[in-house]
Structures are given as structure tokens and as C-alpha cells.
Design brief:
By secondary structure, this protein is mostly loops. 0% of the residues lie in helices and 1% in strands.
């Protein structure tokens, strides 16, 4: 079935376990409840296809086109979706256990309450995604693009975000304890009441970032870019702050690494009125 042309075909419930459909064209096809575990589906076009309830456990989906596809309640556990295109897809109820999504295109998708802990999302395109209340603990998001995304109340504990681009992303009340954020771009991101205890922010861009009432106990802030960064009410006790230009930050009721509480200091070291 490799390179087969079956646009709009009705294949509901079909058993294609371990089949080779490499390069097949199945745009708008109906594969509801199909069995495709272990199948080779590299570079297949499932654009706008109905794949609700489909079993793709352990399937090879490298470079697959799933734009605008319906994957409601699909089983993608241990599947390889490296380089897959998932923008606009319905991913509600999907099982992502052990899935590989390196280099995947997922701009604008909604993944609220989803479990992606330990998943490889390195270099993935996640601009504008909604991941509210998702579990991304220990996930690999190194060099991922996550601009203007909604990651509020997300669990990113011990996640790898080294070099990730999180420009203007909402991380309100998210858990980033022990996360690797080295050289990441957090410019204009919202980290209000976020937890970053023992997080590694060395070399990160925190220009105009909001860290209002954030917890940064023992965090590594060496060589971070601080410019208009709002640390109002933040707790940085025990943080490593060598070469941090605190005079460029907004500090009000802020607990500094040495335990000193600073009140009313605005950008430039001026005391706020």
C-alpha cells in the first residue's frame, strides 16, 4: 500500500497492523477505529482525515501530515512522529505515552490537561499552543519554539528547555523547579507566581519578563540578561547571581539571594515613589 492514492476513502475499522503505507495519500479519508499499530506511515498525508480512536501504537509516523486531522482518543503511545505536521489537529484525549515529537510542527494546537511527561519535543514548533495544566515533567523541549503560547499552570519540573524560545509566553503559576532554561529566551514572558526553585537560568534572556511573586530559591541566574525585569514580590534566596545587573530590574518587596528584602527600587536603581 505504499504510495497508494486513496483520498476520501472509507476505511473505518480496517486492520492494517504493521502494514507499509509509506508516502500514501489519504486526505480526508475515514480511518475511525482503524488498527495501525506498528505500521510504517512515514510521509503519509492524513490531512483532514478522521483518525478518531485509531490505534497507532509504536507506528513510524516520521514526516506525516496530520494537519486539521481528527485524532480524538487516538493511541499514539511509543509512536515516532519526528517532523510530523499536526497544526490544527484535534488532539483531545490522545495517548502520548513515550511518543517522539522531535522537530514536529504543532503551532496553535490545544493540549490542555495532556500528559507529555518525558516526551521528546526537541526543536518542535509550538508557537501559540495551549498547554494549560499539562504535564511536561522531564520532557525534552530543548531549542523548541514556544512563542506566545499558553503554558499556565503547567508542570515542567526538571524539563530540558535549554535554548528554547519562549518569547511572550504565559507561564503563570507553572512549576519549573530544577528545569534547564540555560540560554532560553524568556523575553516578555509572564512567570507570575511561577516556581523556579533550583532552575538553571544561566545566560537566559529575561528582558521585560514578569516574575511577580515568583519563587527562585537556589536558582542559577549567572549571566542572565536583566533589563526591565519585574521581580516584585519574588523570592530569590540562595540564588546564584554573579554579574546580575540588579540595577536594571524592578525590585519591590523582593528577597535577594543574600536574604535582604528590597522595597521600591525601579529600573536604574531609583527608589520608586
Amino acid at each position: 500500500l505504499s504510495m497508494a492514492k486513496l483520498p476520501g476513502a472509507n476505511l473505518e475499522g480496517i486492520d492494517l497492523t504493521k502494514a507499509n503505507l509509506t508516502g500514501a495519500y489519504l486526505r480526508k479519508a475515514n480511518l475511525r477505529w482503524a488498527k495501525l499499530s506498528g505500521a510504517i506511515l512515514a510521509h503519509v498525508s492524513f490531512c483532514q482525515a478522521n483518525l478518531s480512536g485509531v490505534n497507532l501504537c509504536g507506528a513510524n509516523l516520521q514526516g506525516i501530515n496530520l494537519r486539521l486531522a481528527n485524532l480524538h482518543n487516538a493511541n499514539l503511545s511509543w509512536a515516532n512522529l519526528s517532523g510530523a505536521r499536526l497544526s490544527g489537529a484535534n488532539l483531545t484525549g490522545v495517548d502520548f505515552n513515550g511518543v517522539k515529537l522531535a522537530d514536529a510542527y504543532m503551532n496553535g494546537v490545544s493540549l490542555t490537561h495532556v500528559a507529555l511527561d518525558g516526551v521528546d519535543l526537541s526543536r518542535a514548533k509550538l508557537n501559540g499552543v495551549t498547554l494549560t495544566n499539562a504535564n511536561l515533567a522531564v520532557a525534552n523541549l530543548s531549542q523548541a519554539y514556544i512563542r506566545t503560547a499558553h503554558l499556565d499552570q503547567v508542570n515542567l519540573q526538571a524539563a530540558n528547555l535549554e535554548g528554547a524560545d519562549l518569547l511572550s509566553t504565559d507561564l503563570t503559576r507553572s512549576n519549573l523547579s530544577k528545569a534547564n532554561l540555560r540560554t532560553s529566551n524568556l523575553r516578555s514572558a509572564n512567570l507570575t507566581e511561577a516556581t523556579l526553585n533550583k532552575a538553571d537560568l544561566a545566560g537566559a534572556n529575561l528582558k521585560t519578563t514578569c516574575l511577580y511573586r515568583a519563587y527562585l530559591w537556589g536558582a542559577n541566574l549567572v549571566a542572565t540578561i536583566i533589563d526591565g525585569t519585574d521581580f516584585t514580590g519574588a523570592n530569590l534566596r540562595g540564588a546564584k547571581d554573579a554579574d546580575v545587573p540588579w540595577q536594571n530590574a524592578i525590585l519591590d518587596d523582593t528577597t535577594l539571594p543574600n536574604g535582604e528584602v528590597v522595597a521600591g527600587m525601579s529600573v536604574g536603581g531609583r527608589v520608586a515613589a
